[in-house]
Queue: 2 jobs
Job 1
Amino acid sequence: MNNEDKRQLVHVLVGVAALLLLFTVGRWWLLLCVFMILLVGSLFINRKMQDKNIYVIDWFVQEFERKKVRFPGWGSACIATGTLILVAYLQNPLEIAASLLLLGISDALSTVVGRNGHWTLPLNKKKTAEGSVAFFAGGLAGWLFVGQIMLPVAAVATLVESIDSGIDDNLLVPIVCVVLFSVF
């Protein structure tokens, strides 16, 4: 299994773990867990940026982090921050669950399917139509939680995820979800 496949597997596992925490212990405990993960993760990142060896963190960075990231742990920090945005701003557990599916499952699907795709997107040559279709289709699973409102949420999130804005999609997709679920 290559580095990117491992990374996407972790992406899915984090999404599933967040869903399980949401439905077993509730929104507030999930919020506390994500906040603590960000807090501890920030301390580890700080130590790593000071060139201190933390063997477990070094292993995770080597196994799961993309090359040329802003700092070690960037991907994990973005997923955790995106999850925190969802849990802090959305009150309805079903909307949080639908959003977590987009963040955890759809994003991983888009990468796995998209990297084997043939049709690049006109606005972003680094992304493929197949990856966007996979993202959208995975996002529609949120229909089980929130019904037909998931159709426009998944569509807008797919569009935002496909554009190269320079902002990590693990931050943008949760913001889109919060805004759209607040409006609808």
Job 2
Amino acid sequence: MPQLNDNINIQMVDLNRQYLRIKDDVDSSIQAVINEARFVKGKIVRDFEENLEKYLGVSNVISCGNGTDALQIAFMALDLNQGDEVIVPSFTYVATAEVLKLLGLQPVLVDVDLLSYNININQIESAITSKTKAIVPVHLFGQCANMEPILEIAKKYNLYVVEDTAQALGAVYKFSDGSVVRAGCIGDIGTTSFFPSKNLGAFGDGGAMFTNNQELADKIRMIANHGQKTQYYHDIVGVNSRLDTIQAAILDIKLKYLDEYEKRRFDLAQFYTRSFSDINQILTPQLFDYSSHVFHQYTIQVDAGIRNELKAFLAQKGIPTMIYYPLPLHKQKAFADCVFSRVSLEVSDSLCGSVLSLPMHTEMHIEEQDYIVSSVGEFFNFK
């Protein structure tokens, strides 16, 4: 079995190695901000937004303080009323539903698909009521939800679609007519996070919203800037959420490498999948014709009852793993009043007991991945 050098420390995401590879460019970009001494807003922030607009093929990118702010500001821009309902998958990170509760909106939880981890499109219509105003597809782990039928449902019932793209920036969705659109640019508003471990990650917090609707874009910009279009003239109640100039400078450098990063992650994922093909107790991530996969996480499903054993075994081998997520939203105390009784949430329950994410990052060495794969194989040889 492969052995690791004692000096190698396997990480879920190795940000230090990634930095070292682009150190000169990053350092010079940070120094340029310091030299200019404009640490909030300014040309560098707008340059990054414009470059991300070009990459995504979207009319407007509005940066903000973090991914949670992006979700909150997006919903503030829609002018929904207290008690309005928003359909959200139960198997997701808390921020997706948290902002709705903060705004006095009602998350309506539906299940996810067992193979894609994304919202179960067959449950959406049964969750719609006269109070339903929006759907939030979460592009989980790096692959788009099946957006075409979601858009059809939204059009039928006159609903907004707000994409949570925090884990899938750069993924491409393919429509049945052959047209392709980047994740986050398909619905009315897309949101993302630039948390350091994301595929496009800052050296701190950051986020952004995307839209092709100019009216929404103008309103989002105002909300993120204290509700003002002209300084000291506040037309609406807003918030203070902005991307630091240093973070924008770093992100602008890393954006140039994003496609390269995504190819590297995809190649690593394919190696994992090939290596686990003969282990019947593992279900590897599934790929779908309608979306590319940028593998923010490489998440397997392990037969019930042994997931935690495998996690503990790998930890003993010096291999970190993560459980995304150990508890679905409908079982969180904070969302006890959000359960929608007409749909089953059994898949979300099941996934929380079976999913396990393995180390996945652009700087992973071949010997490290060999060691991880061999260690997983060793565990199942005894099962």
